[in-house]
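protien #1 (seq + structre)
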Amino acid sequence: MNKQLIECVPNFSEGRDLNIIKQITNEIESVDGVKLLDVDPGAATNRTVVTFVGTPQAVVDAAYKAIVKAGELIDMSKHTGEHARMGATDVCPFIPVANISMEETSEWAVKLAKQVGETTHIPTYLYGASQPNTSRNVLSIIRAGEYEGFFEKIKKPEWKPDFGPAEYSARSGATTIGARDFLIAYNINLNTKSTRIANRVAFDVRETGRVAREGNPYNGKIIKDENGESVRISGTCKAVQAVGWFIDEYDVAQVSANLTNFNITPIHTFFDEVQKSCIDRGVRITGSELVGLIPLNAMLDAGRHYLQKQGRSLGVDDSELIHIAVKSLGLDELGPFDPEKKIIEYQLRSDEDEKLVSLTAKQLANETASESMAPGGGSIAAYVGALGASLGTMVANLSANKPGWEEQTTTFSDWAVKGQAIKQELLYLVDEDTRSFNRIIDAIRMPKDSEQEKEARKEAIEKSSQYAAEVPYKVMQTAYGSLELLQAMLDIGNPASVTDTGVGALCSLTAVEGACMNVRINTKDLSDRAFADKLNAKAAELLSIAKEDFTAIIEAVNKKIV
């Protein structure tokens, strides 16, 4: 079963004393089952955003230890900083990452809040999906009044903490714990020092917008509705909180934002809307920065957005999409942007995930030629298939950028995107084939002293062997998926690349036939013969079809180059 994973992003009210920050993160790293992903201190805000991920109970344990340590080390009575805050651990959100629902994640957050409230002197509030009371589930509403105002606020019945004492701690303050969707903390730098201009830009774009006024939109009389409430003019970006401020550290004003749902307002949409407002106000964006981590899809979508605006093909590798996103958003203005450190999925990758495909072509050949049994024919079949898809994708991209073919750019771009997806899947299968072989070895090494152990070992060997046969069949299916791409490139692609299409077809056919051999050998000794016979029949049928279809492309290519 796949492990449940929760991300935790506690914000601690200390961004200047690195020794204190280190002591807090040491508590997190002391817990087995969690991985510390990012530590992002800010001197001007005097706040550090820490990101770690792990299994639910491990995340609860690590967060609890960090909250306790922060309460011991951080004296809120002496705290100053640009960011709103109410406690040493100002907020501690849980975010579902893998194989876990928001409801389950919320339950774990409540468990942590209860533990903090019952075992420490820290008043604890629930927020987000963990707070059923909609009048106090928004962080900004809970935190209103901040540290200084909470000594009186906490005494009001409507602001009694969910857990812990209804008495404010002068040293540690209070904390807020809950579950939420992935939040992107994102700041955009302006070529001005004016907080007033930055705030006006923020009001233009944030969901809550600004208060409506008569006459002058900035200092005119506030317009009230029939209930006496201030009328608001909504901003252009939903699911966005934003404010303008001046950062001494950079000597610029920023629009500082939380994108609370990047599926509603992607990072590139927010950037473009800020840019529009800046132009209207005579300022411009100089760059931007991420606070904490960002999901891979958010960066890929931004890369595609800006490539599309440039009229270029979208069928490029993820690394190219990320590069375009970084340069378009100016994420490297204040310092290098390292995708391995800033993209959450990359942080979670282990060395084993891409052990083979991260090698150079020479290294992969040498590794294959060594005396080790893996990588073997299965991995190489997948790799050859990836090369076939890559050649088809190359032809699509060359055709998309061919002078005079601009009207067909979208068509070829779509084909290139499909080719990239096939290539990515086959590259994954290069290492997955070796991993499946290693699972069999692990099963063979299981203890076999007792009858129960012998039975468990036998079952594990059978299951891992079945999976080792399914992987090359997946290679067959995926490599055959290149057929439509290669056929299209033969029919409508750049004529100068016809032989590239032919070599792609040869590679794809080799991948299918080679993987079929591995299906047969890997099913040879299976105990479940019904499973083996069914898989072999499907593989034989697919091989027959693939031979006919890819051979037709190869013959057509040869006719064109006569």
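ok now protien #2
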Amino acid sequence: MAEAADVEITDRVGDWVKFLKKFSRKQMGEIAREYPHKRSLYIDYKQLEKWGKQGLALADELLRTPGKTIDDIKEAIKQNNLIFTKDEEEKAETINIRFNNLPKKIAARDIRAHHINSFVTVEGILRKTTEVRPRLTSAVFRCLQCGTLTPTYAQHYGKFQEPYRPCTQCERQTKMELVPKLSTFVDTQKLRIQESPEGLRGGEQPQTLDVDVTDDLTGMVAPGDRVVVNGILRSIQRVNQGNKSTLFDIYLECNSIEIAEKEFEEVSIDEEEEKSILELAGDPELYYKICHSIAPTIYGNDDVKEAIALMLFGGIPKEMPDGSHLRGDIHMLLVGDPGIAKSQILRYVIKLSPRGIYTSGKSSTSAGLTATAVKDEFGDGRWTLEAGALVLADMGIAAVDEMDKMAKEDRSALHEAMEQQSISVAKAGITATLRSRCALLGAANPKLGRFDEYAPIAEQINMPPSLLSRFDLVFILTDKPDQTLDRAIGEHILKSHRVGELIQHHRKHPIEGVDDEYIQRELSPVQPKIEPKLFRKYIAYAKRNSFPMLSDEAKETLIEYYLNLRNLADSNKPVPVTARQLEALVRLAEGSARIRLAKTIEQSDAERVIRIVDTCLRQVAYDAETGSFDIDKWVSGTTKRSRDLIRAIKEVIREVGDESGTAQVENVMEALVNEGHARDDVKKRIDDLLREGIAFEPRRGLIKLLVR
């Protein structure tokens, strides 16, 4: 039996020699030339599987006994001098054998006891990384009495191993000291990966797994990266206050890391699905179908759904030769009365997006949205970076509900993430920049809970203008009673509930004449036109393959609209739109063409986005008093008319004031009313000056400017 086992081992080494000579000759030559800068030999698992019966046996052995397999490969290299260099003995030991391209991935939540010491592949998002530090792998000790050196002691993960025997020379039971110069160290780093959010069912807490990375794999990845980690699952015994526990902790001894560079690579599309996608792209009713596949249980809101469709597909991010970056993601804000199904729309969009994170404003802090520095046992008490919601939603959509309820300082964290699409962190001695290339979909309520018909809309949105200006589209959803619409909404809601009741009732007490076909017929009004699974794949396919270019007609249409609005302004009139709105038009037009998987942006795309943007501008930036658009109302929160009135108030205070600059409020108001200003407006602006500290009241009824 022993002989048979020996033959088996020898054969395995021989098989590896044949495989390496056939497939890895070029790579081994590179290692020989570039050692020690290149010291990892990568073996493609798929190539191993394809290499006949022997290959399948080797692949199977790798999954079951990875430690033995790696030793066999090192033995094959050593015996046959496959990587030729002077220090041959030493090199065979220090070369890393790494495997990649394993087909079967396992979720962190599905790891069980039988996986220990086997080769596994785990996919997820990187949550934390520690600094790269050296770890002792083999130690040489010196006797403090006679100075004799001990043989090398192998050091394993975790506890430091010291010699427990007396010195071989003087035979005294003395302490030994470590000789760092003769000991060997390896670079090491700890990572923590978390399950990808798109694979989770609702309400599930994503699970994490710690990964131990060594040698040339260290320092490769940063928090927020999507990675596939191949390695050997190891276990380590828990020790509670010196007492050993029967519970063991698991960690992954990393063999190789693959960074998921390609966006939406986790969404696999087979040939059959690709055929369905291309067929759908040629459908003349495509835009109608897509709009009616977004939250079909919510009646109406067609312009909002159309805008969400453009947002899901997104524009094209552009990297310029000078290194500047133009974002392609479309940011959108829904501000509306309660009970208008904003949160429902947000949750549905997150389900449709191939990558999406949902968070609510009240329960989100700036650290939770961006990134936080944490001090914990994971990094041996050191500070580590932990990625937040916007970093985890990289290349997807982040939905932030109840944005008006967020603390002021937490909202300011969104500024950089929205425009520069990066998050800069300078905390606890860590300075880093994380990527957050995601579209932001926000929802908020008006200041007083419900819109006031008579007050300007911009004043009712409880958000700083600097943040509002970063949204490409702002939709105002008001809930006004309208008999025809209310009847349609009522019937739609009751129909949805009735079908739900029918399904539940039929499941418990089967109804005669009700079959699957009947239920499908009843469900049709609340059923999406495109199945959500296919819709997600359609979006991923469009983002991977569609990069449309602006046609001359579309370009002319967009520039004409922009110039028409700009021409509304002169020295006395407000500025209607800025270049930011033109960029938004381009992004939306790219999204519109991507829906059709088109190669060019046609005039129809330009007209579609102009209609959507025009709807938003009329809601947010239309100044009824001047009868024209005033972008300052949206971008800075103060209309041009208000600014002119404030300047007039200051001038009147200087004119009617005494030597010390103090004026009677009544006199100031009288003078301005005579000039044709409304008394209420003047009173409101004087209150603004007092509140902002530009003026103060020395006594009741008096006003004085702080800066004259």
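The first strand starts at residue 40 and ends at 44.
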